[in-house]
Amino acid sequence: MTKSLFDCKYPILEACMNQGSTLELALAVHDAGAYPSLSSWTYNNEIAPLQKNLIDFIKITNSNKIHINFSPDRYSKKELD
Question: Full-prediction pTM beyond 0.70?
Answer without folding.
Answer: yes
